[in-house]
Write a structure and sequence with these properties.
InterPro entries: AraC_XylS_family_regulators, Homeodomain-like_sf, HTH_AraC, RmlC_Cupin_sf. This is Helix-turn-helix domain-containing protein. The chain has 303 residues and is α+β, with helices and mostly antiparallel strands. Helices cover 42% and strands 16% of the residues. Strand 5 and strand 6 form a beta hairpin.
């Protein structure tokens, strides 16, 4: 607890990619025990918010109970057989006291390692849940993961370039299997390329500067209607809804994980004054920014 009985703020830790092996593979496969050891070596509290610059694919094998995981304010429960996808830029954290008894495998890789990777940046706000509702203990998925794990551990059996290429293909097979095993939308949308892909990248770059879809359309050489159609096809939201969701997500991150005032956050997100920011936030969340911060932190307002 902090001053006046308030809970301590949990700051976001930005985590860069550091390979486990000395070879520059671009990806790693590790179990939960190695994850805990790596966190200790790097001084990273896995139960605190972290924002990795690389992809995560988490698979729970078993343990004494389910593993709870939070991804950008959404709580997920991973039972044995579950898969969870975390993209670069998303804020996530493990629940205390549950990682130690859990057993599982984590695959991490740098953006661009596989041909199916979308453009770098945070996951689109309109993306489906990162929890992948696949059939439990799917034989083909388990086999694909075992093959990837075996190849990863067999460093030196073939030339390094061939080893990396094999890992690239095997990870692609695993992701493809996940795409077709899950119910609902594909793991990677074909719309990640083209108009929506360019819009997504532009929003990631400029959402703190402009909140007008027309500005993005003009910069990208599309009409607003074209961007709206592409965004609807990819996410089910209009281009404006998608942009507003991205701004709202960043506002929530700043409110929960920093001590910035509403005025500071308004400025960082491109609002001309705090009143406009408060109006934007209340319209989309139903609460004032400080009310959201208070509820999320379990503390009293500070400004």
């Amino acid at each position: 607890m902090g001053k006046n009985g308030q809970a301590e703020r949990a700051e976001i830790t930005d985590v860069s990619y550091r390979p486990l092996l000395s070879a520059p593979l671009g990806m790693d496969v590790l179990d939960f025990a190695e994850l805990r050891d790596r966190g200790r070596r790097r001084g990273i509290d896995l139960t605190a918010p972290q924002r990795p610059a690389f992809h995560h694919l988490i698979h729970v094998h078993g343990g004494s109970g389910p593993l709870r995981h939070t991804v950008d304010f959404s709580d997920h429960t991973l039972h044995p057989g579950s898969w969870l996808r975390i993209r670069p830029g998303q804020v996530h954290q493990y629940s205390p006291d549950e990682l130690a008894p859990a057993r599982g495998t984590i695959v991490i890789w740098q953006p661009g390692f596989t041909a199916t990777d979308p453009e770098p940046g945070a996951a689109p706000p309109g993306d489906p849940s990162p929890l992948l509702p696949c059939p439990p203990h799917d034989g083909a998925l388990e086999l694909a993961l075992r093959h990837l794990t075996h190849e990863y551990a067999d460093l030196g059996a073939i030339p390094l370039d061939a080893h990396i290429e094999a890992l690239r293909h095997l990870l692609g097979v695993l992701l493809l299997r996940l795409t077709h095993a899950r119910t609902g939308r594909p793991l990677e949308s074909a719309s990640a390329e083209g108009a929506f892909g360019r819009y997504h990248a532009a929003v990631e770059r400029d959402f703190g500067h402009t909140h007008r879809v027309a500005d993005y359309a003009s910069a990208l050489g599309y009409s607003v209607r074209t961007l709206t159609r592409a965004t609807l096809a990819a996410t089910g939201s209009t281009a404006k809804q998608y942009l507003d969701a991205r701004i709202l997500l960043e506002a929530k991150r700043l409110l929960v994980h920093t001590d910035a005032t509403s005025a500071d956050i308004a400025g960082r997100l491109g609002f001309s004054n705090p009143g406009d920011f408060a109006k934007f936030f209340r319209k989309r969340d139903g609460r004032a920014p400080q009310a959201f911060r208070t509820a999320a932190r379990g503390t009293r307002p500070t400004d």
